[in-house]
Amino acid sequence: MALPIKVNEETFTPRQQAVLTAALDLLVENGDGLTMTAVARRASCSKETLYKWFGDRDGLLTATVQWQAAKVRMPHVDRTGLSAKTLRASIEQFARDLLTVIVGDVSITLNRTAINHAAQEKDRLGLIVLENGPLAIRRRLKPILEAGRDARLLRFASSEDAYRTFFGLVVRDVQIRLLLGDSALTQSNVEANIESDVKTAADQFFALYGAKANL
Questions:
Q1: Nearest to 174 by CA among 116, 92, 103
Q2: Dihedrals φ, ψ of 71, to 5°?
């Protein structure tokens, strides 16, 4: 049975981070069939250590997805002195992290493999990726949007709707095109445009939800 993983995905020890990085590398190289033996060999540790830390293969997969999702950092804001400038900077940082992570080989491989497994009802990888990837990332930003609303910098009725709009403005069709192997879209040209895409998405989001835009 999978061991419970810490809620804060960023609290893995450096040694655990090295193991999880090795697991991600193996996923990119092989796309499927990740085993505790292969991870132990790549990370130069024992299988007993892996079982102690993660419980089983599902536990290892869960921690691996959490470690990948943790690269989209939770913005830190001071609710007592939140300004329009700091709110925008936090939202842009989140958008930058989000785009950088989802266009990478690791995320593309994880999502492709999870979709394939879910379609075949092969194992729990689809649910693991959903809960510890997209849903975990959503939980990081919604409190920031709500802090902006409480500070009267943003106006919306539902933080869920605001988040979905934000995600759509940032990600657009980039992720699905990469997943489907669109030859006209490469990781390098997406990365080259991240800064301009982040600014455009932030401009559009604040035009929709900024307090001044809703007066």
A1: 103
A2: -70, -20
**Residue 53 Cα distances to 20, 36, 57, 113, 124, angstroms:** 11, 12, 11, 24, 19
110, 65 contact by CB (below 8 A): yes
Contact 32, 113 (CB under 8 A): yes
Q: DSSP assignment, residue 2?
A: P
Q: What is the dihedral of CA 67, 121, 111, 35, to 10 degrees?
A: 50
Query: Tokens 């604040």 appear where?
Result: 206
Measuring CA to CA, how many Å separate 166 from each of 132, 138, 205? 19, 10, 6
CB 126 within 8 A of CB 115: yes
The predicted-structure confidence for 26-76, as pLDDT tens digits, reads as follows 888 876 677 899 999 999 999 999 999 999 888 888 888 888 888 888 777
Q: How far is CA 34 from the centre of its chain?
A: 21
Q: Please, which residues have CB within 8 angstroms of residue 120's CB and are 6 or more apart in sequence?
A: none
Query: Cα separation of 74 and 97, whole Å?
Result: 10
Q: How confident is the model at residue 121 (pLDDT cuts 50, 70, 90)?
A: low
How many Å apart are CA 109 and CA 27, to the nearest integer?
Answer: 7
Q: Are 66 and 5 contacting, i.e. CB atoms less than 8 angstroms apart?
A: yes
pLDDT tens for 136-187 read 889 889 999 999 999 999 999 999 999 999 999 999 999 899 888 888 887 7
Which pTM was predicted? 0.81
